[in-house]
Structures are given as structure tokens and as C-alpha cells.
Design goal:
The protein is mainly beta and about 140 residues long. The protein has one domain. Helix content is about 15%, strand content about 40%. It has a 4-stranded antiparallel sheet, with helices on one face. A 4-stranded antiparallel sheet has the order 5-6-7-8, with no helix packed on it. β6 and β7 form a beta hairpin. The chain is globular, with a radius of gyration of 16 Å.
């Protein structure tokens, strides 16, 4: 409830429409929130403050595409030999450097109903996407 009220306050400050939360992911003391029909991902600390906002649409506009929404957020698991580092990250409440996003996009000018799926590997340190894979088929990603 606390997260929802903060999100609504955040939306009201922007004087835009209220955002409806689509996905919440908890990882190492952080909450990542995605929203319906929005290409933005907010990163909150568990105690409430917004610490990072990732706008994915800017990676699509170069190709005349528009990110419609982000449906899935996944923290990649490390190889077996790196499990100790993974455990240290969680205990020290550190988000991993790379995050996987999946969602829907369409071409600029197309109807919002004709969306296609995409996968993206985002680098939080460089604030850039390492890999973006927009699929040409009109399928749907149902799980990661």
C-alpha cells in the first residue's frame, strides 16, 4: 500500500494520468515497479524513496519504434562459480549491474493494439541497453 500511494503521488506531481502498477519485483532491498501502458521502470528502496527511474522508450525512438509497456523484470542469475558474489550482493542490498526487461513495442504511427514483444538487457552502470531484441512476430512473451 505504501508503494502504491507513493506512486500515485509521483504521478500527480507530473500532472499526467495516474499510473496503474503492472509488475512489482523485490530484489536485495529494492522494489522495481512497471506500469500498464508505460515504458518507465521505477526503482524504490524498500523503505520508500524513489532512487532511479529507467525510461526504456529512448532506446526505441532511434529506430522509429515506441515501447508500449514493460511486462517482465528479471535479475540474471550468475554462473555457479559466482554464487558467492550473488549472495554477497543480496546481503549487502545491492542491485545487479544488468537487468533483463521484456515487454511490448510497436512502430511509431501504428495502432497501440498491434504490439510486438521485445527483450532487453539493460546496464545500470552505463545507463544503456547492452542488447535489445525486438521480435517481428506478433506473439506474446508469457514468462521469463
Amino acid at each position: 500500500m505504501l508503494l502504491e500511494s507513493q506512486t500515485l503521488k509521483l504521478a500527480n506531481k507530473q500532472s499526467g494520468p495516474k499510473l496503474r502498477i503492472k509488475t512489482l519485483v523485490y530484489y536485495a532491498g529494492h522494489i522495481l515497479a512497471t506500469y500498464d501502458f508505460c515504458s518507465m521502470v521505477n526503482v524504490f528502496q524498500v523503505n520508500g524513496p524513489l532512487i532511479e527511474r529507467i525510461e526504456l522508450d529512448r532506446f526505441f525512438t532511434q529506430s522509429n519504434l515506441k515501447c508500449q509497456q514493460v511486462g517482465y523484470v528479471l535479475m540474471p542469475r550468475l554462473d555457479w562459480q559466482d554464487r558467492e558474489f550473488d549472495t554477497m550482493q543480496r546481503s549487502q542490498k545491492i542491485l545487479p549491474r544488468k537487468i533483463i526487461f521484456a515487454g511490448e513495442y510497436n512502430a511509431i504511427g501504428e495502432e497501440a493494439t498491434s504490439t510486438r514483444p521485445f527483450l532487453m538487457l539493460f546496464d545500470r552502470v552505463k545507463l544503456d541497453c547492452t542488447i535489445t531484441k525486438p521480435f517481428k512476430s506478433r506473439g506474446l512473451i508469457s514468462a521469463l
